[in-house]
Design goal:
By secondary structure, this protein is mainly β. Helix content is about 15%, strand content about 55%. The chain has helices spanning about 1-40, 50-55, 75-80, 180-185, and strands at about 65-75, 90-110, 115-130, 145-160, 165-180, 200-210, 215-225, 235-250, 255-270, 280-300, 305-315, 325-335. It has a twelve-stranded antiparallel beta barrel. The longest helix is centred in the N-terminal third of the chain and has 38 residues, at about 1-40.
Length: about 325
């Protein structure tokens, strides 16, 4: 009798424990289901989707908001800096141009699985530098910092079925600056004799990107809204077209190649900058078409792309804003 009673008590305890565990598990499941149900109503991601969005950006587009590091040679660097021998370009090993850039979308939502809408900000800063040979240095050491190019914009994106992206940018701000290594050395930049350069403009921009199989086709145009009476150069109007080709090789590794063609109609101002309340004095101005050409080939691995790139375009280095820049090098870019 004692054995039976103890067995019944043990069985009751086990049943009680099972009921309690089941009730807790059932409660947890209900809470998890409720969390997933609420989250499913709006999937928010302020960053770009790598798997699909990488096909809706141009790899060779010089205005794309990607982080990258370029190292190579600029064939016409001497003419860009007016053949100033004080730079000692003959003593340089290589040029390099790091760029920090990305996009963030504080407003992003999807409608019926195929229609994506985003309101976001794109930003990038490009730096222009070079390195001297180990046995040579100038006032600022073994490297020289030429300047920066900065670009930021507010945009509205519509993406259809992850194969088509239309972007409207109501305002894009662009400004360029000469580096302190040049500004601080009168042998490189004599401000008493040379014009003091400055650039700051705002543009409106439209673009469209389309993924077709292995190809990404894209194009767009922009026009200036401000800066006509202050900036040394104003991008009055520009138009461009590009194509990327990706062929999957193995896993996340793809072969990539591309071409970018563009043309910009720019206003070049010579500006007398006087510290008074009367503004700036435009001493000379003219309008001119500038071509933009980029060709590249390389490999794409997950979010990284490494390749050889050739570019021929109007220089983004402020000191050389009237000149073309002709360069060839290796570039590593990051899409995030």
């Amino acid at each position: 009798m004692k054995f039976k009673l103890s067995s019944i008590i043990a069985l009751l305890l086990l049943l009680s424990l099972y009921v309690k565990i089941y009730a807790q598990t059932n409660s947890y499941n209900k809470m998890d289901m409720h969390i997933n149900e609420v989250k499913s109503k709006w999937n928010f991601n302020p960053l770009r989707f790598y798997d699909t969005d990488k096909y809706l950006y141009g790899w060779l587009d010089p205005e794309v908001y990607n982080s990258k590091y370029w190292v190579g040679d600029i064939f016409n660097i001497e003419s860009m800096y007016n053949h100033n021998n004080n730079y000692r370009f003959d003593k340089m090993i290589f040029f390099h141009q790091p760029t920090l850039g990305s996009e963030i979308n504080p407003i992003a939502f999807t409608y019926k699985g195929k229609h994506r809408f985003r309101v976001g900000v794109g930003f990038l800063t490009q730096f222009f530098l070079s390195v001297y040979k180990p046995d040579y240095s100038i006032l600022y050491g073994e490297s020289i910092f030429y300047g920066t190019y900065m670009q930021v914009e507010l945009y509205f994106d519509y993406i259809y079925n992850d194969v088509l992206r239309f972007r409207f940018t109501p305002v894009r701000h662009i400004c360029t600056h000469i580096g302190g290594d040049i500004l601080g050395d009168d042998n490189l930049y004599n401000k008493e004799k040379e014009e003091f350069r400055d650039s700051s403009i705002e543009l409106m921009h439209f673009s469209i990107h389309y993924k077709y199989g292995y190809f990404t086709l894209y194009g767009g145009f922009s026009f200036a809204m401000t800066g006509f009476k202050e900036s040394n150069f104003i991008n009055l109007f520009s138009v461009y077209y590009g194509t990327d080709f990706r062929y999957p090789l193995w896993g996340e590794i793809s072969f990539i190649s591309g071409i970018y063609l563009g043309a910009s109609y720019d206003r070049i101002n010579s500006v007398e900058r006087i510290n008074n309340n009367k503004g700036y004095n435009i001493t000379d101005t003219y309008d001119k078409w500038f071509p933009s050409i980029a060709i590249g080939i390389g490999f794409e691995i997950y979010r990284f792309t490494i390749g050889v790139k050739y570019e021929y375009l109007r220089s983004r280095q402020l000191y050389s804003y009237k000149k073309m820049e002709n360069k060839l090098g290796v570039e590593v870019s990051l899409f995030f």
